[in-house]
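Input (structure):
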């Protein structure tokens, strides 16, 4: 009897552990991929995909940045499949159908025609750099080092280091709206009394608002 109870307890804990982390770094259950066929002929490698997520951290991001966009990734193609390179826990490559199923609101944006574009060499460099970052932990402290990665940091650095294009404007933590109680609570949970007000950061909303990008219709 005790053995069966122990087995049941272990099984329950395993099921609870089979969650993922959304783009805001908070634990969520993995959603079943939709069986509805989706077509992505309009996609190109290097496209940036944005998402609206719901979680306590996402609520803090919305309050601090004034934007509804809380998660971002970059589109890549491998083995004839469309995928998203994203910084969650850990940094990983996600099938685009799984990405789209995670949120009710998704949008694809791309560099405008008059901006520098991705070519074969830069796309290969993006794959190489992205592979080097796979399995890095999600950076809950939003530090500007490569030791860990958060979502918009990963995409910004890919564009900056490979194309030498800055998508969005970096801001120091102190320049965001930190007045909301939810923002204050998250900051003190993450930093205690050592809040890094001088740390440079990039927000998904800042990238979304970049004048270098335009909307891409995929439906």
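Output (sequence):
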């Amino acid at each position: 009897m005790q053995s069966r109870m122990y087995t049941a307890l272990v099984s329950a804990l395993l099921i609870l552990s089979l969650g993922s982390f959304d783009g805001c770094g908070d634990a969520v259950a993995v959603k079943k991929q939709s069986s509805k066929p989706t077509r992505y002929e309009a996609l190109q490698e290097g496209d940036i995909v944005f998402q609206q997520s719901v979680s306590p951290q996402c609520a803090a991001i919305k309050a601090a940045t004034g934007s509804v966009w809380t998660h971002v990734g970059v589109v890549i193609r491998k083995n004839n499949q469309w995928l998203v390179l994203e910084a969650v826990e850990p940094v990983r490559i996600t099938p685009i159908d799984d990405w789209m199923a995670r949120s009710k609101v998704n949008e694809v944006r791309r560099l405008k025609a008059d901006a520098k574009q991705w070519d074969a060499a830069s796309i290969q460099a993006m794959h190489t750099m992205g592979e080097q970052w796979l399995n890095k932990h999600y950076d809950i402290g939003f530090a500007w080092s490569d030791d860990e990665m958060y979502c918009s940091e990963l995409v910004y650095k890919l564009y900056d280091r490979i194309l030498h294009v800055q998508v969005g404007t970096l801001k120091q933590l102190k320049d965001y709206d930190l007045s909301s109680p939810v923002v204050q609570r998250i900051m003190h949970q993450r930093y205690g009394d050592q809040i890094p007000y001088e740390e440079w950061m990039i927000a998904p909303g800042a990238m979304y608002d970049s004048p270098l990008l335009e909307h891409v219709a995929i439906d």
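Notes: The radius of gyration is 18 Å. Confidence is low (pLDDT under 50) at residues 1-21, 26-37.
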